[in-house]
């Protein structure tokens, strides 16, 4: 399906030829757009004159003009006995019982102007007309006006009327006439076309593309010679064991392809040339991820899992757990595998406290090989056995290890090289060299001389798998413009990097959303990254594809903040803070990296600093331009941190509450307030800090002092939302509303609104289960989401009203009209500004 580009309002008069082109595009909009998409009034900005607006009441009196630099419709009424107006016809599809809201910009140069909603039946008969309390405007300036109403029985269409009534005289200019129904599913906002895992066989690459809870992942077969997709296969699942995506792919010795998925820990097999994959079932146990797969002799496949640190084998139709569970004491992850077929030994990289072991598949002997200098790392993220050496990737350092058998039968490892700033994947050895990307350039490592040699070649992709095609190195992986295939001939130096044609294009789940300083709604993709941009009330008629192309360049977005004309973006991993000027280009500018702050051995113990940080769930801005970022630490650590960054002054990351993450922030009363979670990073055991209670802290920008303010609640798990409201600080701690005066931060009040979320079974809620939001268009209320419910609270009485309940609802932001936005999986939803 071709992507439709929305036709936004043009801010100045158009030339005749441009107006004709615009008119053609407007009239090409379906008269009955999909029920889940925006309702679009044809020519609602009068860029094409009065096309789409039918005469109403007294003939004449309305003409297209340019006013204040904008295309507009002028209503001129000089006759107190006549009524002038135009109605958007034909009307848009409408449903009886549904509330609709009309928005417009009007400049009443003299007299009074009126805006009406009109409801008609299938024959065109007028059933009702509604002008809200804000349906009229006076004053010589542009003013936002609205009208709303509920469609009566028999309604088939809804339309807009700009009007000057009988007995009225005056001149008004109209622009930006927009409409929304009460609840709108705005559809997919972000797309991904990059693989998570790649393996090779028989001249083809087999690339696994991650989906969402509502869109299954796909396997793409790429012909290496032609660099085109020859087959796409959807990975099946069931309601009981849904498949969202996968990180593991391997080619067995018999040439068959195996895929490991999540969150159902399933193994799939694909026989090249067939039309479907075979579901082999779950790889034992109740864990959720198969992180890596390696081929063994005789068609066997070995695998590693999260979250029970299991090492397993699939052989002749059966799964077998190997060794103990977990395979390494305390391990939750078997994150990486490498197999030595000559010795029938498997190397396992584990976490969240980094481990590296050699497991003898014949005797069951286990030997620890991790160099002591890396014991404070969280994970051995990648392993390859090639060229008689073990290559281990740990936090962008590639270790080259020489493994030797000792006299007592044990095995030890000697470090031949430690190469920094290396991408995860590296090639099989050929002619004594292993190839990899380091700092964006292709490099080689000579096994015998232990030397690294750089080339000037920039592959321009994150390689997910390498192979050799004759004497040519081939890599496939993710780039900003989709999937790329890279080829390099070491003999001649010739190389190429090209986009692969025909790869799967799948929706990406929305992980974070927020309103930008340009009034658009920004969304950040889960796992596969990418950024979506939506122009409120101007979406197209295709809700299964984004209105605008996905912006590439960022990994998973965890938070968004509009502050002093910029959009600040918190990105995982390594807690990266970016800034974006909507008037400038994309991608955004990297400002600070929390993953480079602190020491891997530290965890905010007495006398220590913070550990490196990872997940930036909270952002807040100060009046002097400072941006504050609250974070969850790297895998296996408990202590989050507060980052303070200001342009020109750089940034610093501070310990604030030991053994707790910082998951909410707000600036109020001259200080920054933060809410903590007793849950640390993934991989900590137990999940919640023993005996801990989430708390509130304050940071004084003037002195740097940090104070904690205990909550009047019994062992709260997390404070997941904070907002400044009329000079007070409001927050959500579990299901309770907390409020305080920043001048007296220890005098905290608490009011139970909802039952506490199910943190035991859904620990991710302890990072982000709630949002609080103020909306300038509604000064009497505060809005929020918690536990699949969208609600509002009366600012004066603290009375709470649930406005909507949607399973899977998360996040909350608002546009310039006061409409509310939330997400469910990969789809963005809008609730029109509630009636007072």
TrEMBL record:
Residues annotated as signal peptide: 1-36
InterPro entries the record matches: Galactose-bd-like_sf (IPR008979), WD40/YVTN_repeat-like_dom_sf (IPR015943)
Domain of life: Bacteria
UniProt keyword annotation of Membrane present: no
Residues covered by region (Disordered): 589-615
Keyword set includes Signal: yes
UniProt KW keywords: Signal
Name used for this protein in its record: CBM-cenC domain-containing protein
Native source species: Nonomuraea rhodomycinica
């Amino acid at each position: 399906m071709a992507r439709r580009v929305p036709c936004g309002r043009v801010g100045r008069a158009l030339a005749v030829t441009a107006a004709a082109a615009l008119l053609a595009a407007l009239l090409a909009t379906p008269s009955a757009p999909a029920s889940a998409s925006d309702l679009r009034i044809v020519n609602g900005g009068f860029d094409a004159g009065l096309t789409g607006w039918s005469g109403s009441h007294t003939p004449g009196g309305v003409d297209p003009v340019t006013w204040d630099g904008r295309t507009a419709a002028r209503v001129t009424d000089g006759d107190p006995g006549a009524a002038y107006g135009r109605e958007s016809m034909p009307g848009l599809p409408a449903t009886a019982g549904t509330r609709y809201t009309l928005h417009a910009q009007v400049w009443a140069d003299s007299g009074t102007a009126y805006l009406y909603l009109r409801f008609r039946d299938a024959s065109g008969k007028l059933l009702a007309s509604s002008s809200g309390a804000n349906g009229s405007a006076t004053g010589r300036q542009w003013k936002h006006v609205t009208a709303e109403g509920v469609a009566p029985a028999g309604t088939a269409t809804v339309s807009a009327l700009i009007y000057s009534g009988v007995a009225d005289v005056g001149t008004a200019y109209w622009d930006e006439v927009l409409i929304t129904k009460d609840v709108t599913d705005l559809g997919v906002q972000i797309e991904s076309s990059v693989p998570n895992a790649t393996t090779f066989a028989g001249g083809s690459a087999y690339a696994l593309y991650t989906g969402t809870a509502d869109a299954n992942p796909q396997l793409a077969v790429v012909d290496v010679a032609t660099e085109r997709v020859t087959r796409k296969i959807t990975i099946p699942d069931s309601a009981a064991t849904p498949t969202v995506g996968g990180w593991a792919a391997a080619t067995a010795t018999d040439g068959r392809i195996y895929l490991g998925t999540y969150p159902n820990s399933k193994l799939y097999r694909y026989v090249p040339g067939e039309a479907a994959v075979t579901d082999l079932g779950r790889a034992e146990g109740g864990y959720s991820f198969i992180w890596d797969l390696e081929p063994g002799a005789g068609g066997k496949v070995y695998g590693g899992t999260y979250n029970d640190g299991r090492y397993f084998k699939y052989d002749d139709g059966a799964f077998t757990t190997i060794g103990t569970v977990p395979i390494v004491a305390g391990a939750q992850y078997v994150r990486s595998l490498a197999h030595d077929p000559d010795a029938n030994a498997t190397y396992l990289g584990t976490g969240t406290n980094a481990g590296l072991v050699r497991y003898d598949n014949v005797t069951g002997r286990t030997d620890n090989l991790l160099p002591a200098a890396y014991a404070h790392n969280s994970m051995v993220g990648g392993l390859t056995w090639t060229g008689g050496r073990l290559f281990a990737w740990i936090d962008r350092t590639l270790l080259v290890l020489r493994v030797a058998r000792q006299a007592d039968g044990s095995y030890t490892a000697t470090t031949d090289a430690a190469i920094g700033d290396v991408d995860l994947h590296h090639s099989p050895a050929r002619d004594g060299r292993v190839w990899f990307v380091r700092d964006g350039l292709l490099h080689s490592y000579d096994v015998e001389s232990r030397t690294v040699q750089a080339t000037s070649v920039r592959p321009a992709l994150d390689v997910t798998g390498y192979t050799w095609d004759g004497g040519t190195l081939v890599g496939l992986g993710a780039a900003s413009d989709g999937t790329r295939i890279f080829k390099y001939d070491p003999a001649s130096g010739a190389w190429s990097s090209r986009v692969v044609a025909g790869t799967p294009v799948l929706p990406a789940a929305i992980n974070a959303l927020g309103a930008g300083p340009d009034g658009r709604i920004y969304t950040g993709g889960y796992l596969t990254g990418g950024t979506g941009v939506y122009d409120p009330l101007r979406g197209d008629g295709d809700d299964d594809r984004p209105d605008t192309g996905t912006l590439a360049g960022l990994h998973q977005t965890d938070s968004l903040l509009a502050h002093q004309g910029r959009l600040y973006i918190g990105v995982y991993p390594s807690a990266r803070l970016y800034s974006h000027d909507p008037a400038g280009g994309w991608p955004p500018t990297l400002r600070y990296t929390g993953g480079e702050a602190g020491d891997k051995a530290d965890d905010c113990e007495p006398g220590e600093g913070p550990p490196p940080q990872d997940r930036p769930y909270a952002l807040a801005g100060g009046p002097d331009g400072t941006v504050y970022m609250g974070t969850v630490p790297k895998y296996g650590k408990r202590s989050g941190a507060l980052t303070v960054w200001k342009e020109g002054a750089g940034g610093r990351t501070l310990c604030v509450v030991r053994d707790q993450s910082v998951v909410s922030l707000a600036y109020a009363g001259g200080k920054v307030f933060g809410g903590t979670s007793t849950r640390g990073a993934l991989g900590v055991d137990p999940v919640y800090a023993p005996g801990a209670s989430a708390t509130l802290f304050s940071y004084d920008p003037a002195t740097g002092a940090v104070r904690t303010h205990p909550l009047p609640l019994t062992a709260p798990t997390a404070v997941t939302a904070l907002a400044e409201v009329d000079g007070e600080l409001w927050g959500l701690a579990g299901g309770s509303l907390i409020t305080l005066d920043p001048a007296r931060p220890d005098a905290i009040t608490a009011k139970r609104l909802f039952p506490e979320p199910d943190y035991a079974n859904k620990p991710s809620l302890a990072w982000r289960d709630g949002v609080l939001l103020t909306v300038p268009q509604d000064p009497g209320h505060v809005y929020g989401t918690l536990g699949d419910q969208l609600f509002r609270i009366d600012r004066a009485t603290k009375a709470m009203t649930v406005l909507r309940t949607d399973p899977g609802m998360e996040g909350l932001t608002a546009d310039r009209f006061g409409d509310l936005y939330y997400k469910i999986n990969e789809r963005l939803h809008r609730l029109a500004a509630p009636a007072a």
